[in-house]
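Fig. S4 source data, part A: sequence.
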Amino acid sequence: MAASLKYTLHHYGTDNYLQKLGVWEVDPTNKDKYWVIYIHGGAWRDMRVEHDCFIPSIDWILSTAPATTDNGNGGGGGGGTGDAIAGFASLDYRLSPHPLFPQDRATTPADRYRGARHPDHIDDVRAALALLQRTYGFGANYVLVGHSAGGSLAFQLLTTAAPASAGEAGEGPVPPAAIVGFGGLYDFTGIDARRGGAYGPFFRGAFGDDPAAWDAAAPVKFAGDYAAAWPGGRFALIGSSPDDTLVDELEADNMAHRLRDVDGFVEGEERKNNNNNDKKKLLRLKDLRGDHDEVWKSGEHVARMVWIALRELGAGL
C-alpha cells in the first residue's frame, strides 16, 4: 500500500503553493523499471483535488499487479510491482479561478492566488516532470496518466513548446514512453457545443474568452503530427466509462480517431502484430466503470490501465 512506501514532497516552483508534487518510492535507483506519474483533473480550477488523490490508485496497483496485468482483451499476465515499477509520482499545478471559491487579488497573498491561464498549467507539468527526471534520472521510462483536464495536459506535453526557462538549460522534460488518458477533455469547443455551452465558463477561465484559443490548445486539434512530436513514444491508451455523466464517450472516440487515422497509430490486431513495432500503438478502452470522478476515487480501473500500459512496454512482466 502507498502508506508503506517512502513518501517525499517536492516543490518545483516558488511562485505558487500548488507548484508541488508527491513521490512514493518503490525501487527508484533501478533505471530499467518504469515510473507511473499522475496528473489530476478538476477543470483546471478545482483546488479540492490535489496530488494525494492518486493514493487509491497506487494502492490498487500495489495490491493487484498479477491480476490486472493484461492486454485489454482479458488475458492474464505475470510479474508484479517490484518487477516493473520504480516509483509513483503525482503532480499539482497552478489553477485558474473558481467561481465557487472567489479570491480578492488585492488581499490574497500572491503565492496563494489561483489565477493561472494557459500555458501556466502545462508549464507547471513540464517543470514538475523535469524536476523528477533530474532527481531520479529515469528519462523516458515512465507512464504518464491523466484524468479529465489531466488527460488534456498529458497530450499537451507533446503539443506545446517549452518556455525558455524550462529545465536547467531551457529544455523541457523527456516525454513518456506511454500516455494513459481517461475521462479526458480533448476537443474543447466540441464538447462545449454538445453541452449547450455549459462548459464555456471553465474553458474561458483556463484558456481565455476566444474559442479559437481553445482550439489552439485542444489535443484533438493539434496542428502538428503526434508521431513526429513524440518520437520516443510507444503506446497511448484512451479510456472512458459509459457511466460518465460529465464527459461523453465521443470525446475519447475523437481523440482515438485522431491518433489512429491522422497520426498513424495502430490498434487491434495490428497493435499486437510484432511487425508493427516501428509504429506507435493505441488502445481505445471503453469498459471503465463509474462516473467521472468515481473512476479515480476508486482506483481499480486506473490500476488496470496502468498495468495494460506497462505490459505494452514490456516492463519486466
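Fig. S4 source data, part B ends here. The mean pLDDT is 92.
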